[in-house]
Every structure is written in C-alpha cells, then in structure tokens.
Amino acid sequence: MVLELEGHEELPAPLAAGSSVSKKSSTNPSHEELIYSLLTLEDKFFNLQGVALCSYRRLLATYEVASGSSSRINQLEQELRTLRKAKAREERRALRHHLKNLSGEHDTLKERYAASVRRTDSVKAELDGVRTERDFAEMEREAFWKERKVLRTSRD
C-alpha cells in the first residue's frame, strides 16, 4: 500500500512487498497496519504543519520588515523633500544676495565710468584750450613777424 500526499514524497506501506503477510491481509490491512499508516500520516502531517508554520512565521517576519522598511522609506523620502526645499531656499537666498552685490558693483562701476568720462571731457577741453592758446600765440607771433617784415621793407 502506497500513500501519496499532493506535492510530497510517497509514503511507504507499513509492510514491504513480499513479506510474510498473506494476500488477503495485504488487500485488507490489519488493524495494526492501519494504525501504523495513520501514525505515519499523522507524523508527516505534523511535520508539514511545522514547515508551514515556520514558513508562515518567516513570511510574517518578512512582511513586518517590509512594512517597517516601507514606513522608513516614506520617512526618508519626506526628509529628502524637506532637505531639497531647504537647499533650494538657501540657494535662492544666496543668489539674491549675490545679485544685490552685483547690482551694487554695477552702480559703482557706472559711477566710476561717468567720473572717467567727465575727467576725459575735462582733459579734452583743457587740451582744446591749450591748442587754442597755442594757436593764438602762434598767430600773434606770425603777425608780429609779418608786421616787422613789413616795417623792415618799408624802412628800406
């Protein structure tokens, strides 16, 4: 007699084939054989039940770890979002500060450029004045020499 559990190994009959049990007893198992088979089945059942219980406990532990990990992951993601927002705020503040500094530098450079242009215009005016004075002095000198030449020629 061979018993089979679904998905598991075959269970041997209590007595091996070719034993001294008569054909009649092998077709109609004795009370002892039935009890032995029942005890064997019961042992296998308890073993399978233990395996199932261990598997269930492992699965439950895995689920608890996974759900704990899931909540920890959610917490870490929230912290990451908070840090990103804080970093973005800090970067915007730093950029505003930098822009303000650049604006101040730009105004300073504009003032320096305007002062430079004024100095350049002043120097140009002075040069124009010097040229004008030099030209005027040269014209006077030429006039003087012409007049002198005229006077010499008229004396002669």
Automatic annotation (TrEMBL):
<protein>
    <submittedName>
        <fullName>Uncharacterized protein</fullName>
    </submittedName>
</protein>
<feature type="coiled-coil region">
    <location>
        <begin position="66"/>
        <end position="112"/>
    </location>
</feature>
<keyword id="KW-0175">Coiled coil</keyword>
